[in-house]
Amino acid sequence: MIILYFKKNHIFIFLYYIVLNIKFLFFEFRIIMRGMYSEYSNGDDKESLVYKFTALVSGIIMLLTIIYGTYEMFLEYITTGTIVVGAPLVYVEFPYKYFAKPVTYFAVSLVVFWYSILHVARDKVVSLGKDIRALFSIIALGVAYASGYELLYNFMVWDAIVVSQILRGNINIDQAVIGYPDPNLPWNLVFATKFFSAIFVVALYTLYYLNKTKSR
After folding, report:
1. Which class for 58: exposed (0-12), middle (13-18), buried (19 or more C-beta within 10 A)?
2. Cα(141)–Cα(207) distance, integer angstroms
3. What is the pTM for the complete model shown?
4. What angle do CA 145, 103, 208 make, to 5 degrees?
5. pLDDT tens string 102-116
């Protein structure tokens, strides 16, 4: 019964996913703050401190973006009974019109956050055994392939929709959505392409980083 309930109410599945991400970010913040205090107290290298500060700032930007997007989608679901994944992060610009969209801040922050986290945890990564390193490398490769495929797929669909809009003389790129495979939970294509491009970069760099760093 619980499974059927969640299948009929996709918004709760999505919100549950968001809550998990927020809990993960808070957990990372606690680790980073403790590490930054330790670095400052022990007078260690400034490079590590820069990575920790960058991870903290980018993590906060991600968290604020997630909260804003979740809140706006929740309001949309309450008022209209429908939801377009990522749409609230595309329809506005910040800090002023024609500047960056929230989804852009989110995608850039995700890449910067993960890059910084890997460098913060460099000693732990280096100390990984060859078997664990091989497992993580395989996972990173799989994620890179899956996100790369989704990126290309969404770009092709987006291009087709834009061409059709041009032919009709009504161009609105930000409004392009895809309702496949679930028409009840469409994705905004601007959000989808930037999200999967960020995941693709993260996975590729993780694969490169795991192979670049050598075990002790």
Report:
1. buried
2. 7
3. 0.79
4. 35
5. 999 999 999 999 999
